[in-house]
Queue: 2 jobs
Job 1
Amino acid sequence: MPVIRTDELTKRFPGVTALDRLTVDIDAGVVGLVGANGAGKSTLIKILLGIAPATSGRASVLGSDVVTNGPDIRAQVGYMPEHDCLPGDVSATEFVVHMARMSGLPADAARERTADTLRHVGLYEERYRPIGGYSTGMKQRVKLAQALVHDPTIVMLDEPTNGLDPVGRDEMLALIRRVHTDFGISVLVTSHLLGELERISDHVVVIDGGQLLRSSSTTDFTRNSQALVVEVTDRSDDVVAALAEAGLTADRDGRHILVTLTGDADYDVIRSAVARLGVGLIRLEQRRHHIVEVFGEERTDVGAA
Ligand SMILES: Nc1ncnc2c1ncn2[C@@H]1O[C@H](COP(=O)(O)OP(=O)(O)OP(=O)(O)O)[C@@H](O)[C@H]1O
């Protein structure tokens, strides 16, 4: 059974249709919800949480209808909102304990779960300092911790990498992947950057103007292309010439050589040519597409990493 299901889901604001007859099934695992700014990602999450009503259509989370079973759903779902919503004058520990208590955990369990969760997201001594003095990366970790503290079945993370530098972004993405691999919690994570979710998602849903553009497993998005990537220790230009002589179409692409794949025999032809020149073969594999390249072919107005 899908963990999230929408059927002709529509949300209209005055002058704007934020979701336009969106029908999609989302299975357990890590699912990336991608779309440009204003595509309708936050609106969808708010409807799924029962915070905002849909104009028409239906949606369910973990088999429960969002209109009739909002409290049940919220008990099993963790939510990390996009915007800064943290009180500056309390510590991470105080805040996350409070959120755990709000979710119904008894005081002792709330304190224990808070310590475990803050450790898991990588906040240590700092957890006793007021949140107001935290970096953006630390605040994002507190927001993630409060979404996890009551041990939900699924978490919905709205733009968790917003405002982070490249290193902070990589750390947050790795942390999100571990939420699923370490605890089995399903993750719905949004981003306006196609490239970053490709790394951690099992499945990607792309929306644009409130409509479903595509819903596919990440491997379908990044299907193999008909090209081989060859990387050698040196003399790349000589390798290209040798491959051309052997009847293959080969071109330099920075450090790599791209060879048009014609059949399985190409692998042996390449290995022999490289060996004859006496250079080392570092890499020989079929090239994979990146999601952003796939969308470059289909549409160009969805954000690229
Ligand atoms: N409360 C509201 N009142 C009026 N319009 C709204 C409201 N909330 C969202 N919208 C509009 O609905 C559309 C979808 O917004 P939404 O916030 O869901 O997009 P998003 O994909 O999450 O983008 P972002 O990442 O920029 O938040 C936008 O055009 C937005 O301006």
Job 2
Amino acid sequence: MTEILHKTVVLVGMMGAGKTAIGTELARLLGVPFVDSDDEIVRAANMSIPEIFARDGEAFFRLKEAQVIARLLSGPPGILSVGGGAFLSAETRTRITGLGISVWLRADLELLWTRVRQKTSRPLLRTANPRQTLGELLAERDPIYALADLTVDARAEYSIAEMAGQVCAALLSRPDVVQSAPYAGGTDGSAPAGTAGRAGSGAAKAQPPPRGEPDRPQTPSAGNERAAPRNTTAGAPARRNGGAK
Ligand SMILES: Nc1ncnc2c1ncn2[C@@H]1O[C@H](COP(=O)(O)OP(=O)(O)O)[C@@H](O)[C@H]1O
Ligand SMILES: O=C(O)C1=C[C@@H](OP(=O)(O)O)[C@@H](O)[C@H](O)C1
Ligand SMILES: [Mg+2]
């Protein structure tokens, strides 16, 4: 069995919730393209996010973020991780509801802080007391993230692979988004490259769970925080969506 994705799955939630890491893994499990709105903005601007905030301001970043998300949502179904502030825009939320499905990766302050504390790449946390700032943002934003279609709880003890499996399981409750379909490929019953068989049941166990590490310290000028090869549209394995949307 494999899965057919009908709509883009948009991962939302606070900085450090794991949207980028889990989105990457989820896309790999489902064998669909992965995109991250922050990466797209960084690539288009050829500047890091702190550089964009410093030179052009947050309002400009938010404008670009909304535009990039609109463009990505109009493409074929895949996994889209968005920056933590993106879902605050009512216009973006409406677009996501119309063209995709939102999944909130819900995490508490302690977990978020563990994940973001060592890194300087998030300009909103460049304050005198970044932990307090993170807590204030969390309190302001949680009621808005709660508007998402699905919620998956992030816990410190869940690896990235386990979290991706949890998201798969939640998505399987929505046949309008993800459908299990018989695999019509090889004769040996094995899944095609880039798939993890039936998501949700065994997806998280299909690979040894690579425990993610908290962000490492990095200079702001280092630009894009994710240097590893990504499962991007260009490099994605063949889709099994049948173009459905
Ligand atoms: N389930 C997890 N287990 C361990 N580390 C994780 C997990 N999810 C994310 N991380 C790590 O936490 C940090 C922040 O994750 P990231 O995906 O960048 O969050 P976001 O995109 O939501 O800001 C990264 O270093 C990532 O590898
Ligand atoms: O929460 C936010 O407002 C932001 C989150 C960041 O993305 P992540 O949520 O992927 O860290 C990035 O878009 C920018 O620093 C602003
Ligand atoms: Mg991210």
